[in-house]
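Researcher: Quick one. two chains, 637 residues in total.
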Amino acid sequence: MHHLTKITAYILIIFVAISINFALPRMMPGDPITSLTDDPTTGMPVIMDEDIKEEIRSYYGLDKPISEQYTDYLKDILKCDLGWSIYYNAPVAEVIFERLKWTLLLVGTSTLIYMILGIFLGAVSAWKRGERGDLGLLVSVLSIGSFPSFFLAMLFIILFGVKLDIFPIFGATTPFMEYSSTFDAFKDVLYHLILPASTLVLTSIDGPYLLMRNSMLGVLGEDYIVTARAKGLTEWAILKDHAIKNALLPITTVIAIRMGFMISGAIFVETVFAYPGIGKLLYDAVSFSDYPLLQGAFLIITLIIIAANFIADMTYLYLDPRVKHG
Amino acid sequence: MNLLKIKALRVYFPTDDGIVKAVDGVDLNIKREEILGLIGETGCGKTVLGMSIMRLIQSTTLTDGEIIYKDRDLLSLSDDEMRKIRGGEIAMVLQNPMTSLNPVIRVGEQIAETIRLHQGLDKKAARKRVIEMLRDVRIPDPEKSVDSYPHQLSGGMQERVMIAMALASDPELIIADEPTKGLDVTVKREIIRLMKEVTAKRSMLFITHDLGAAAEICDNIAVMYAGELLEHASVDSIFSEPLHPYSEGLLNSLPERGLKPIRGISPSLIDTPQGCRFHPRCDYAMEICREKHPEMVKLEDGRAVRCFLYA
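Model:
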């Protein structure tokens, strides 16, 4: 029952997201034809007679009533057809999915690392609150976390890419490389991943770290921790069996929300490292005014964030029995 | 035969406002199979006294004195040694079962944890033992309840789980901190009856401000006020003939004795009154009570009282 309402809610959210994605460009002033003919930046207005305008409109389906455009849009999405990219001259879906795997690799790997590391360090910090270890961690995590990601990325390029020359400074793979084995390919990908992923990890770790530290401090003051101690459990057992699970509860929700920020953080990092992910793609799409591509990318990012929320919801269900049993 | 001897125990908490003297020179013995009630108003230091026997007070506290359990001073044991006693030979029933049970762990597992730790049983044997324990504390349908989460149980059932948890390691001494707090009258009566039953062959320090509950279950009573003991007597004598004016005041505040409250409020533990700590609220206060701090006086019938009326 509970699952069913959850899933219905998510289907509704996806539907609304798609609809907004459809409506937004149509709510903007002007229309594609006007911008074609009256573009003031060209200084050279294109003269088009009504017949040609009509032809272009019908070619793009813009002469149909809005309701029909909407149903067409929904049908196209179901067929994974997101339109045609102007700049790449290829189907938007194809362009995006080609890039998506790199972003998923980069964001996925770094999210996994910074979450686990941040949660672990936060727990340790709370456990040692007020002691040297806690203060050291707090200061270093906060200072690293306040670096803008693009700045840290540039520092990394200068230091590890140029000065020390141990890591590649751009791309996700070595261009024109022939791999002798899958392991070789894996090594090359990993090699390219390290700098951008470290940048994302270091600039994002402050979130989960601080959250876990706070949440853990709250939990450690709870009565059931005294109970656990009164049982004669070791400090480690108390931390592992009684504190962490409770402290994780508020964090799962925030992880999902931060997924959105992660993608936007990835835009900077991917741009600086010329990493061929969706962030770089978004940046390019904006520079080239590739609206269909932009719209498609937004849709995919929205869907990813909704998926992350869904996973968080499910995790919460698993972590907190009070939600499940009501 | 004393199981636990507390000698000149002091537990001070340094705070920004000054030193909170939560326990200030307490001498107290608990005999084998004795149920000793520790009564007093909220904030008199009785919970801290119970916690310090278990060494559950945070490390910044200043603790002084001795807590001798079976010839060993608990205060000078190493952390590892103390951990073996804690939850093993000495178990605690904490107040507020609602918050004292971990909300995300099944109650059976919370009890089994203690059994595995102190009796070295494996998972399966521990679970069997837990079901027996739940049956002993008369939780209905123990095979099912063992897999319940705390929020699925009523307050009375949660309290029973807390008791089962304390009994799990078959302790010799139980420290029960306000086990009847927040329970309605009928449930409270059942819990008291249960506690009386399960502590038949054990010792218990029963910390409460509920005099009715204390009268029903305890053999002896110690009255605590502002960090120190004021009177120590058998339950019958203290209820029939309280000696200390504070004990008398507590009894008179009971509904069946006219609901007369003691005037004034209990003093701050940072800045306790000069002389006898109770004198500002005492109807019998004399000149000497303001000036000198009374010592505990042992009377012939084995009672002890800290009051100049009996010096």
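Chain A touches chain B at residues 222-224, 226-234, 241-242, 245-246, 249, 319-322, 325 (CB under 8 Å).
Researcher: Thanks, that's what I needed.
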